[in-house]
């Protein structure tokens, strides 16, 4: 219990730091894009590192759906202490990973009040997925969507396949 | 195992970010002090948050030595996955917590090669201890010392006592 909190607190500090650093600079216009991409890049490197440890003794994956299932179960559980609740795909490289109670959003009150703050708290995790996929040979673009907190959807779109 | 890695990777990213942000600024002179204090402040807030969760259902502590033992065992184990190896005190408010294999330094080669990089990787943890102590009613100054990686000493100096 206190264990999960460490990651959540650290994540909060990172978001706060990135936004604070940017706020003291002059190029306020670019602020939002830069902050999100800084957080995404941090997530990317952490995702790469994590998946390397994870898959060290793993058999290879049958296909990209198989790999995505692994991300939704093992990878997600270790980081966010629960599995992804729902995985969908159009079988053409687009996936939708739905987490009904996303750990990094549970601190917010549910409802729409803080909805516009949500992207700040999803950027790191988008990078995390992108980094993990990248180290497994899949280039992707990952976006996220929130309609009602603390539920959210991550949508990795694979640009190339392993095979 | 992959669990601990998450904290270690995140910590690396934070250190890198703080130093990168500072490097792009003009006041290079103040660089070292500012970076260390930014990291210390982040650690402080995380330490406060963590200890709150931890001591929610705890009995109160007998004295400050009792409290320090708790930090060395329970608190340290949750965060760094091992206990402090040695705790010493002069019974006048100065403590020395020695960790012979400090998690955030194990990535470095042992020996003296990277010794001057060490303070970067200790600042957050100094703040962590200071934050935890602060929420338990003890104001302190925490310094750290490394002579041979990955071993290091944290030295909280208590300014006031609970009683």
From TrEMBL, chains A, B:
Keywords: Endoplasmic reticulum, Golgi apparatus, Neurogenesis. It comes from the Eukaryota. PANTHER family: TRAFFICKING PROTEIN PARTICLE COMPLEX 6B-LIKE, TRAFFICKING PROTEIN PARTICLE COMPLEX SUBUNIT 6B. GO terms for biological process: endoplasmic reticulum to Golgi vesicle-mediated transport; nervous system development. Component of a transport protein particle (TRAPP) complex that may function in specific stages of inter-organelle traffic. Specifically involved in the early development of neural circuitry, likely by controlling the frequency and amplitude of intracellular calcium transients implicated in the regulation of neuron differentiation and survival. The gene is LOC107758819. Its main location: endoplasmic reticulum. Transmembrane segments: none annotated. This is Trafficking protein particle complex subunit 6B. Belongs to the TRAPP small subunits family. BET3 subfamily. It is found in: Endoplasmic reticulum; Golgi apparatus, cis-Golgi network. It comes from Sinocyclocheilus rhinocerous. GO terms for cellular component: cis-Golgi network; endoplasmic reticulum; trans-Golgi network; TRAPP complex.
């Amino acid at each position: 219990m206190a264990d999960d909190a460490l990651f959540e607190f650290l994540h909060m500090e990172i978001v706060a730091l990135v936004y604070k650093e940017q706020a003291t600079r002059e190029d306020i216009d670019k602020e939002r894009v830069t902050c999100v991409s800084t957080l995404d890049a941090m997530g990317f490197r952490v995702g790469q590192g994590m998946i390397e440890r994870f898959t060290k003794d793993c058999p290879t994956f049958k296909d990209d759906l198989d790999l995505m299932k692994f991300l939704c179960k093992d990878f997600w559980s270790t980081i966010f202490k629960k599995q992804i609740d729902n995985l969908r795909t159009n079988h053409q490289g687009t996936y939708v990973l739905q987490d009904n109670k996303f750990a990094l959003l549970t601190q917010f009150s549910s409802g729409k009040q803080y909805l516009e703050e949500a992207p700040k708290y999803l950027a790191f995790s988008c990078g995390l997925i992108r980094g993990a996929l990248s180290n497994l040979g899949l280039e992707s673009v990952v976006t996220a969507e929130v309609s009602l907190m603390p539920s959210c959807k991550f949508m990795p779109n694979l640009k190339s396949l392993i095979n």
